[in-house]
Design goal:
Blueprint (H helix, E strand, L loop, with lengths): L18 H26 L6 H4 L2 H7 L3 H6 L4 H7 L5 H8 L3 H7 L6 E4 L2 E3 L6 E3 L3 H13 L10 E4 L18 H10 L9 E5 L5 H8 L6 E5 L22 E4 L24 H5 L9 E3 L3 H11 L12 E5 L8 H7 L5 E5 L25 E5 L3 H5 L11 E5 L12 H11 L3 H6 L2 E6 L4 H8 L6 E6 L24 H8 L10 E6 L9 H18 L5 E8 L3 E9 L4 H6 L5 E5 L27 E2 L6 H11 L11
Parallel strand pairs: 1-4, 4-5, 5-6, 6-7, 7-8, 8-9, 9-10, 10-11, 11-12, 12-13, 13-14, 14-15, 15-16
Antiparallel strand pairs: 2-3, 16-17, 17-18, 18-19
Length: 644
Amino acid sequence: MPDAHSCNLPSATSPSLDSLSTAAFYLLQLPSLSQHTRQLSASRTDPDMDQNQLDQGPDRFLHHGKVAGAVLARVPPELWLSIFPHLDNKDLRAVTRTCSKFRLLSQPLLFRILDISPFFLAYNTDRVIYRPQHYFQTTLRRLEFYKSPLIAPAVTELWISPYARSGFPSRHLADDLDPTLVISVVIDALPAFPNLQSLTWHCIDIQPSWWNAIQKQSSLKRLWINSSTILPPPSNDQPLPTNSLQVSRLDLDHYAWEGQTTNLVSVHEERLKGVDPVLLSMTIRPESIRSVSIPRHDTALHTLSILSKIQPDAGCTLSSLTVPYSCTSSEDFIPSLTAATSLKELHLLAPQEDSAAPNEFKGWLPPSSLPLLDTYQGPYHLLPIFSNANQPKPRRLRAIELWGLDEPASMTVCDPYQLESVLEELLFHEETLRSLQSLSVIVTHITIELAIVLSRFRNLKAIFLESQDSLIPNRVPPELRSELDLLPESPVSMLYTLLQSHTFSASLHHLSLITHFKNRPDTDPTTQCVGAANFVEGLGQSNSHLETINIRYGTYWTGVVDIKWARRSIDAASEVQQPQKHLAVEPCTNAALQPKQSQVITGAISRSNTNSSTSSVSSTSSQAAVEKFFFFTFQAEIHDCNQT
């Protein structure tokens, strides 16, 4: 990537570039710029660094403070404010050290979240672990900084929770700080944050005075509440505060992991009662709510009871609903769906492995309900109901994520043979064939029959397939099995052989496979990577429309390998010299991969943390060339459990 100071920078006032394209251009340049800034910062603390290194390249501009005049003169501050929010904190810290103007624009973004932990929870108990007394003084000093004129407008999220966003500080049994003191001073500071959009509130009962202050924060759009209720007023003569919030997103009783929702219930809160129904009734307004997400069963039942009472003429704006599958047996489930006339996404969460067997879905969903539904996540046996597959006018589903209840040991996987018959029902409806673009399933094992059915969806753009493989049923007697029959102990090369020459629909752009198959113990890493390379190269040749192929195979105990394949686009000039160099393989470490353009429903895939440079392999490479490439670039891909 070219250095920022040496690029032909477009003018911000150029009529051929709108503000978004200009911002996108500089966003591509900033990682290089921030990298040089971090190098400069390191040099200032390293007296042994050669001064010649400091006076060369882009560091020379940074060292003399000239980058601000060269870059800022071309871009108005409004565009930088559109660019900087896309950087992570590491790059933001580097940008703040670039120049005083960049510091003024980017420093507030480092303090968008005000996180407070007034106490902690002991593991799986109701016992509160208090904070030391000096934490109160520390909170007061932090609040004064956050309330400063430069920082306050950038604060968009307030986190009040016993779950720390990053690690746990040291604690002592003598700590005895009253949590209400900390919470009260934070609530009193709310008027200083005019752009506060999100409030996280976990395991703390809300005093009426706090709720009154929260409701005055008209900018709030999201509430994440766990195991809380509103306390009664001190006097019986005082009524409970009314609901004046216009919240569009409501997340309830989610386990918090690194500050994010997880669709799981926290083990710390199993003995608590979840969000109180009174508090629920004061946070759900049909004319403003857009998204409701609840993994906890009892809280979901209370919420469905409220939603089911919404009148048809109330103009309910709910567009996304996430509840446990166990709630489908509730008498309020169907009325809630029929009341949500704007619902576009329905997510039924699979039961956990240690939970009781869920009850069967009850009720009848009117075919005319859910006219806007385009995303369904849930058990595949309910797909005909929510797709209207048996009705003259099916729903136009765009994205489907399916799990099943066919294996009691897993509670999430589908039998591929039964799944095939359900998917085949959708093939008879032209509207479904035109609308379906993304399909994600988890099966006991991948079969060629399932792949053939998936290939018949002619507008499908992304497929995500995960197979457990250890749960493959023994349908065929041992004496009748062929060499191509998949067994739990089969090597991953058997799956390669099964899919190597399969042709998917011409509309398919992204294919992701996760399998628990592994290589034989005596297979060395280079041979493993060569086999994977040959497979993705062959599959790419058989499917010229595919843009990305992501493969993850192995188990935690034996090691996991992640591979990403991407097709290269070539300029006309370079294509003359290297006509075959259009396929790319990118190594990945520590995580499965998610294509940047894939519309596969996320949740099972996470982004790679690799910083490896992209290497390319010709689709007509010789065996020796492939082995050489993978020997140098894939050594870090085998994750040894003993080392992790």
